[in-house]
Structures are given as C-alpha cells and as structure tokens.
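Hey, can you fold this one?
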Amino acid sequence: MNSKSRVLPPEKSREETITISNVQKIPPPAGLLVVIGGAENKGQDDLEKKQTPNNFMGPEILKTVIELTGKTDPAIEVVTSASSVGDESFSDYKKIFSELGANNAGHIHHATRKEVLNDTLLIERIKAADAVFFSGGDQLLLTSLYGGTYLLKCLKERYINEPIVIGGTSAGAMALSTQMIYAGSKEVQELAGEIKITIGLEFLKDVCVDTHFVHRGRFIRLAQVIATNPTSIGVGIEEDTAMIVRGGTEAEIIGSGTIIIFEGYDITETNVDEFGSKKPISIRNLKVHILSKGDKYCFEHLNPPHL
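Sure. Predicted structure:
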C-alpha cells in the first residue's frame, strides 16, 4: 500500500440490514426532473450549426420535457439567469418549444438578487407553471440569486407535492444537485483539492451532477468530488443526453450519448485530503457505471433524512 495514501476506516457492509429508529418519514417527490448534459438538440437548424456527432435523435429531450407535463400546451417558464445572453437563449428555447407544441413559454431572467426579492409576480408565475426550465451559463449565478428565496421555496414545495416538471441543462442541470461544482478546469482536475464545490439547489439529494462530461474530459473532476464525500453519487452527463428522475430516486436515461455514474461507498483509500500539495489525485475502489438510452438507475441513499 502506498504510504502516502490515506486509508479510510472499513465501512459496514452495505449488504447488511441497517435499522434506524425514529427516522422522519419523507414522501417521495411528486414532481419530475429532467437533468440534461448540455448542447441538447434544438432541431435541424441547430444540428447543422453545431455539427456534433452525437446529435442524431432530433429534439428528443426537449420534446420529453413537454410530454412529461401531460399537457397539450403546457406553460413553461424558462429561467436564463445563468446566461450572459439571456434574451438570445430564451429566443432559442421559445422557438423550439413552440415547434414542439408548447406555445406558452415565459421568460425569467434576473441580474441581481435584489431583483429576485422585489419581483412581486414571480411566485404566481411559478405556481402557474407546468414546467420550469433552467438554461446553461454559470451555475453559481443560479445558487447565489435564488438560494434562500421564496421562488426556490415555492418551486421545491411544488416539486414535493405536485407533478411539476423541472428541467435544467448544462449549468442549469449542475445547479439541481446537492454538491455543485463551480470551478476546476480540465487543466487542474488531477490535482487534489483543486475542484471547487458548494451547495446547489438540492433537488437531487446526495447527488453531484457534472455536464458536457465526455466532450470536455471531466472524468477525474467528478471522481475527485465524490472522493471528498462518498455519501454523494456522481452523475456525469454527456451532451444531448439526459436522465429523467421520478420520485427523487428512479432515473431513466434518454438522448444520444452516455451517462457515467460514480459510486464512492466502497472507496478504500484516497489522497484527496492532501490539498495544496499539488499532487495528482489517487482513489482506489471507486465504482463506475456507463449508461445509455433506455438504461435505468436507482439512487441508493445511505444518509437518513432529518430536519
């Protein structure tokens, strides 16, 4: 064994039955999540413009967002606050949603937290929406703008109690998780402690989402995050690929690419705590799954709910 690696204490076998008394019973959410890896197909014009090899199924993912609402013409609120070109981003989504039969698309964009707090019509719009869709951009903008606001409280209450569809792509998908990566490029991802994380909007409990995953070579980045706290499950989603999450735990893969799942429960040793040393990350016994369209995955939670 490498003497420079930190040996983690042995864990109780996950095959054993763990009995926990007086645990708060929390019902599974009634809402649905569509978590997208970015660069989802927005139609033939978009395909010709990007010329990416894995966009061959048409706008399947955005069509699924509409279908999951169960409405023929659903009200969709598109949140572009993460984007520096919010109007352009909304225009693209409004066009494709309209082509897919959803003509009632609203635009939510805030540049400052004060705007969010003073937006008196915001909650009513969230209450009336059949779906809320977060666009790409900078995920840290989403958490800093909406964390601790009535907008987020209202959206979470609807997600828990009503069959609302909440979608996110790229940064909008990363913000839906518990641990949220906000910094750490491909150039530094191999160095212990160089990936920066914070708390996301927490629609996905004990899950960390990374996007553009294969295309931008982010495998080690997400693996390092899971090594910092193996309670969480890592979900690396490729472009034009998504997972539908039902009941908060049951995931189904759609789209043209792959999703890579990281489970850290059985990690035996790592040097992730040697941050600042400029040493490459080392992790042993990290479990990895590669999933594609039609595959399903159940998020196993070993972290009991509590107030």
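Residues 27-298 form a domain with the Rossmann fold fold (CATH 3.40.50.880). Let me know if you want another pass with a different chain boundary.
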